[in-house]
Amino acid sequence: MVYRGLFDERKGLSAPVRAAYARDGVIVLEDFVSAEQCQALQARAMALVEEYAPQAPGTVFSARDQRHAKDAYFEASARSIGAFFEEGAFDAQGQLCVPLARAINKLGHAMHDLDPVFQAFSHGPRLQAVAEGVGLVDPQVVQSMYIFKQPGIGGEVNCHQDATYLYTAPQSVVGFWFAIEDAHRGNGCLGGLPGAHRSGLKQVFRRQQGGALQLETLQADLEWDMQGLEWLEVRQGSLVVFNGLFPHLSEPNRSAQSRHAYTLHAVSGQAAYPASNWIQPGHMPFNGFV
Ligand code: FE2
User: Fold this and answer.
1) Is 192 helix (H, G, I), strand (E, B) or coil?
2) In the beta sheet, which residues pair with residue 230?
3) Helix or strand (DSSP H, E) at 125
4) What residues are paired with 179 via a beta bridge?
5) How far is C-alpha 152 from the geometric centre of its chain's CA atoms?
6) From CA 85, how far away is CA 167, in angstroms rounded?
7) Cα(204)–Cα(66) distance, rounded to whole angstroms?
8) Angle 125-133/15-24 helices, nearest 10 degrees?
9) % of the chain at pLDDT higher than 90
10) What does the pLDDT look like over 142-160, one tens digit per residue?
11) What pLDDT shows up at residue 93?
12) Residue pLDDT, tens place only, 228-256
């Protein structure tokens, strides 16, 4: 069973908690943030949807340049704020069939640097202590995502490793997944394979010589044993911390409740950060938690 407990405000992560993280590649820190903090972040996310979604590509169906526009918008969001639609939000004619607030899959990928409310939520000595506790040296926050997992249409996320999308040498990526609302089997909570992080990275998404981003398979014969799947049902305010190599997934949200989550990904400032990563610091250097 994955470790669950409260964050020790005085001592940080104790030796047994660190050992659990090393063993499983994941820990759950319950009540890490308050309900008020979650509600404030949620309200701000909804305001950002109002601000950014109208410019997001996706509302015109089957245009030939749509793919290109979507790719360009995605890449531009690396160090800015973009809104991304749920596939199930459109009807066969390409028209939105749910209200805008219910149509967005996620916001990404630099709210933590650009928006004051997200910036405050994403920083501080407690997060620094967790990051150091799981082994990050000079942690640098590379990306943020606010995931809506909308009621009824929130899509499935297949089993993957976050280090596929953000990698360093040696591997140092750590995911910080905040439950902004309760997450359970009914509304598409996280599930994962404790211990499977020790088998290494299966695939990597990186920029090729010609500039295109592509998924490459590193270990073609690595098969994850789904018998070991553990569901991580958590209450609002919980923080799930996981190794970039921890395989995880979530089911579609077929319930009437949303399942908002906020994620941060940090890397060690001492690890090499290849230029082939899709997110590059560009005009805005990466920053730490403090
Ligand atoms: Fe993930």
Assistant:
1) strand
2) 192
3) helix 125-133
4) 261
5) 21
6) 26
7) 25
8) 60
9) 84
10) 999 999 999 988 888 999 9
11) 79
12) 999 999 999 999 999 999 999 999 999 99
